[in-house]
Every structure is written in C-alpha cells, then in structure tokens.
Amino acid sequence: MKTNDVALHITNWLKEYAKISKINGFIIGISGGIDSAVTSTLCAMTHLNVICLEMPIQQNPDHVLRAKEHINFLKNKYSNVQSKLIDLNPVYKSFCKEVSNVNTDFELALANTRARLRMSTLYYYATINNYLVVGTGNKVEDFGVGFYTKYGDGGVDISPIADLLKSQVYKLGSVLGIVKSIMSAKPSDGLYSDSRTDEDQIGATYDELEWAMEFDKVNNSVKELSDRKNTVLTIYREFNLKNKHKMIEIPVCKIPLKLL
Q1: Which of 15, 220, 197, 191 lies closest to 88 in space, CA to CA?
Q2: Which of 14, 37, 100, 235 is the most exposed place for a label (fewest CB within 10 A)?
C-alpha cells in the first residue's frame, strides 16, 4: 500500500465531500483506539473544523487515557481541532433505572445502548454546528464480520477508512504519527467496563479475519487447512452471516401497483 498517497487521497476526498455537502466541518467520537485516532487525524489534515468528542460511559480507564493523549496530540498539531468531554454516565444510569429487565443476561443490549447514546450525542453536536458525523469503521468490521452496533457506531454520515483493512489502518497510523499507546493497544470496542478486547469477543485476531475474508473471496474449499484456519474460517462465516443485516439495505416491502 502506498501509505502516504492513501492518506492524501482520503484527505482530499474528505475536503471534496465537505465542499459538495456545504458543511462547516467534521465531528468524531474518540475511543482511544487506532481507528478513531487515524480517522480524526485525517479529518484534521483537511484544515477544516474538527470536533473530537469524548463520551465516557463507565469506561475502562486505559481507554480514557489513550483518548485524551490522542486529542492532546491533535490539538497541539492542528489549530482547527477542538474537543468536548460529554459525560454520558448519568444518562446511561437513568436509562438502566427506567428499563425493567437490566441484569447481566442483557449485557450485549446494554453495550449497544452505550453506542447508540454516543451516536445521538454526535448527531446533536453535528446538527447545531452543521458538521458531518465521521465513521471510524474499517473494512473487516464493516463488511467482513459486522462488528459494530447498528444505529450506534454504525450510524454515521461518511466512512473514510471503510475500504481499508485493519492492518492497513495501522500502517496509516504509523505514517501519521499516532501515539505509541494507541498503536500498541489491543483493539477493543470499549463498550464494556472491563478490559475485554475485540479478539476476546470474536475469537480471532484481525490478521486472522483478514485472511478469512480474502480466502472466502477466492476459495470456498477447506481442504488441507490447519485446524486453526478451519476454526477462524468458521468464526468469520458465522459472524458474516449473523450480521449480514447490517451490511445490506434495510428491507422495504414493495407494494404492487395494482394495490395502489
């Protein structure tokens, strides 16, 4: 990958999209992970206005520290970057109090609720500033395993890095000077209070998922694969099938003309 050229291409694409859309800038949630770090840096490189939002909800302290470190890096380097800290803990606690079935059996539903509260917050600030909400999903998450929350972190206006594999995002991060704490951190969606990683949840690393994604494009045979590769392929295909509804258009019931 021609990393510098890719960074320039994405930056120009962002500037052109902003011009066509007649918007004043970009808003993006900063998680402390590589995807939001790279994406926000690319947005900053447009020299258009950028607001970085921190939106903690019972957040792992390591994620909070990395997010702050990255925002400080951006603000020191780019004068067009601002940041806001929006503590969503009271909102989340109020939601949990109101719903009647909150317990450990509904952990995933509550995790998705966190993502959707953040999405609502991003769109509030996007609307009052006439900004675009920028997505941070990469190709493996968005089009491989569907590892994101529908109408949560999947609810965005534009997706600058969605055509890049996770490994390519890391290569961009290296060229862009992303802080070491983020570059070396294990990927995590940050939707839980503990230290679980994406690999813990999925059962495979992103390198393994990238292999499975490519394998499925060119070869459907599992002959002569190692036990681990067979396991990874099964994991990838199960996630892809289960989350296919996130990757296609919402089904619309078409009414026959004779009924209209």
Answers
A1: 191
A2: 100
